[in-house]
Write a structure and sequence with these properties.
With about 80 residues, the chain is mainly α. The protein is built from two helices and no strands. It has one domain (about 1-75). It is about 90% helix and about 0% strand. The relative contact order is 0.22.
Length: about 80
Amino acid sequence: MRWILLAILGSLLSVLVGAVIVRLGLDWADTFEYSAASEIRYLVVAGVALAVAIGGSAASAVFFLRRGRRARRER
């Protein structure tokens, strides 16, 4: 049960990191004067944040659930 909670916590942490990337990335993108390139910057920031959130959640789930499965086998 502990491994499931750690997997959930890892997923929430990766979503939080993705939100921080969005915040910092949009602050950075707003330092430039608005142009058509600004929209591309916004999309790149959103894509990176989404990749971090999804990738971190998947990695956390795989890592902690595999460790939990190993721990159950050793008992």
